[in-house]
Amino acid sequence: MATNFSASLDQTFKYPSSDPQCLIKWTRLGSPDQHPVVLIHGTPWSSRLWVPYAVALSRQYSVYIFDNPGYGQSKHLTPAATAEFAKNGSLSQQAEATAALLTHWGFASDGAQSLAAPHVIAHDNAGLVSLRMALQYGCIYKSLTLIDVVAVGPWGLPFFKLVAENPDVFKAIPPQMFDGITRGYIRNAAHKPLRKEDEDLLAEPWVSGDGRPGQEGLVRVLQQASVRKSDDVERMYHDLGENGLPIRIIWAKDDKWLPCDTAEKLKELIGGKCEVVLIEEAGHLIQLDQPERLMAEIVLFLGEVDRVS
């Protein structure tokens, strides 16, 4: 699956509306009459990683993509909001903002009648975000696909801790040197060698000087990753399984960031009819390592859910 599709995030959501602290850029692909799908990216990626999947799914679904606050084209608006982001390891703020975005789109929350419940597909720390949204912010899904997700502790790569303990040092690294560090970090997430255009696409928000998050933004993201917390919500995961939400866990067998035995731990916590699918010859950047296989698994699961609902 090629990654050189483009999808302009031409819509803006201000959160909170009364006193905006961030701007979330988003767009929708496909016919609004089709069933909705929401794709949520993780760290340190952006919606660009999902664009080819969104384009393909938009032939059958109404697909929503967006950049999380502090990523890609979505920005924090105040120094206080920026500082708080780095400390929010629980991702509760991101879950709250994303839940508000789904409400803005017209999706149901806590039983309110609105648009049909969406299929939600989450990668990396979007797993914890999407689980919090369902369990703590009342978001209702038709199904939940969790792909190599951050959702079960213990957390963190040693690199995260190193950055968190020395943020000023990493912010002061000359741009050309930081570019190399960023690209090395991104390459480590893939099992197969990345195409240069894909590497450039993923690195650009963190190494460009065009008003995007940039070097300081990536340092903040890695600081946040070093203090990830989920204990308060992990004990609630079984509620989703007991309530019958269709959940599929998809995991890269060669994920160096999140070993695949994490998938089984998560399955046990969720219970119910949750199933795990392992994909070989893929790392944490499974979207680029095995795009055809991943797309096939996504379409298969969504089709299964659609047929019985």
Give an overview in words.
- The protein is an alpha/beta fold.
- 44% of the residues lie in helices and 16% in strands.
- The protein contains 14 helices and nine strands.
- Strands 1, 2, 3, 4, 5, 6, 7, 8 and 9 form a nine-stranded mixed beta sheet that branches.
- Helix 4 links the parallel strand 6 and strand 7 (143-149).
Strand count: 9
Mean pLDDT: 90
Please work out how many helical segments DSSP would assign: 14
Order of helices and strands: EEEHEEHHEHEHHHHHHHEHEHH
Shape: globular
Taking the sheet with the most strands, its summary is: 9 strands, mixed
- Which bin fits the share of residues in helices? 40-55%
Span of the ends, CA to CA: 29 Å
SSE-based structural type: alpha/beta
Radius of gyration: 18 Å
Low-confidence stretches: none
Percent in strands: 15-25%
What's the structural blueprint in terms of helices and strands?
Blueprint: E1 11-15, E2 22-29, E3 36-40, H1 51-57, E4 62-66, E5 75-76, H2 79-87, H3 92-105, E6 119-124, H4 126-136, E7 143-149, H5 158-165, H6 167-172, H7 175-187, H8 196-207, H9 214-226, H10 231-234, H11 237-242, E8 247-252, H12 261-270, E9 275-279, H13 286-289, H14 291-308
Parallel strand pairs: 3-4, 3-6, 6-7, 7-8, 8-9
Antiparallel strand pairs: 1-2, 2-4, 2-5
